[in-house]
Design brief:
single chain; about 500 residues; alpha+beta; 6-stranded mixed sheet; 21 strands; about 30% helix; globular
Length: about 500
Amino acid sequence: MASYPEWNEAFVAFLVSGVRHGAPVYLTIDDDSLVYVGAHYLGLPAPSARDDFIAAVKERCTERVGKARRVNVGGARGVMPNGTPNSVSFLAAMVLAAHEMRSDEEQGIDGTNYFRRFAELLDLSPGTQSRPLGFATGEEEGLWQAWNAWLAQRGYKPTAQAGEGAHVYIAYPIEQALVRKDDREFLELRMRRAFSSQHFRMLDEAQLATWLMRQGFGRRHLQAGLHSADPDRASAFVDAAFRIYQAIDWDAEPTAEARQGSGYISLTGGILRRVSIRGIASYLLMARRPSRWKSVELRVVSNSGAHTLVPMRADLFAPLWPVEPFVEAPLKYVVEGDPLVESLVFPRRDFWILTTDPEDPLGQMGTWERYPNLLGRKFWILLKSKEHEAFRSELEKYRSEKLIDWDSQVDDPGGWAEYRGCMVLSRAWDCIVPATGTESLYDSLRPTSFANIGLSGGIRAPEGQGWLEGYPPTMTIYGFERVLISAQFRPSIFIQI
């Protein structure tokens, strides 16, 4: 059996793996997470991971009082010798209970049904005000705040926050549980029906996001997450759905066992534009590192042999070989080194959105981010060949409506067009109906937020963890029609020199 501290350290490493500094971190733990963490971080057999975890939390954070069992929050307080919060495993148990709230779509969520599930998970006796014995109202809030503080100190974006009214405290675990167990089963069945052909089984995150955003799921928690006004939260839901999509065993019947997922991961490929000293541009294949994955050395097998994937950013591998940005069918390469990472897929796309590296705004254009926030930023649109007139017509329509503009448009000899220096000008996209087949372009360009913060200048600390003291960036808050504010500010994270 793994101990409570061992689970705690493993969860922390798992939750921030593959996450870029400044990106949000959700403490979302479900049965698949327990199996992965148990096997890859703690060396536990998959069938025993869940029971092992629950036993570790019960041993540290509950106690017997006669025939009753009550919560002992003291077991989760403080910090571990390495400085990580001691609370993560206990909070993971709270989120696991939220993941298993099945019938609440019809009944609604309140403290009674949430804490009933939490008590069942840890075999707790009933206490007062619907809470388990020994678990005073609000006693868990300090644990969540300690986790938030640890994330912020290390350059990540905390996401756990209190709710309102009767949901003040239960909002912490419930909002961390992104795609819950019944949502997962629902999504997988919908995906199996929608993606019957082989082509649709090799989508990337952005392509799946377009499909998700255009579905009427009729499930409150799922719809609220995917259409959240917070782009980071909506992106986290898409990421969770993408993990479900990747784990589907398409050859198996959609039984309860099949819905647990195969656990396999396919890396997704993007592109990086590189210009030679002679001014010749080419596009290189750039693989994205999976989030919530224990990093090991991987090799991609191509016609020219095996190529080692070298980490370049927390969420990206270094560029590989030149590729044509547009292919008629997805390319699939075998990946060696991890039995769960089976392939690298370069998708068939009609267009690419290219931005500069957030850590190097003057650098090369590429697919640096899964879901870039385009408001207030210059970006490029790489569009398929001239024969692909529908997308070109759509861009011209958006330009004529003053929704978007660009500095120049260049036709590449390779047969594609580069729309350079694009910028979104308005949020009045709701009046536009995209032409059939071009919805993905519309969804990628339509802004999802009212404002965006841009940081420029200054001297960055290593790995994007803030700026050096005395050399802060200029902060610009972008809204529509004009720049709202431009000023220097002092970031909350510095490195002293």
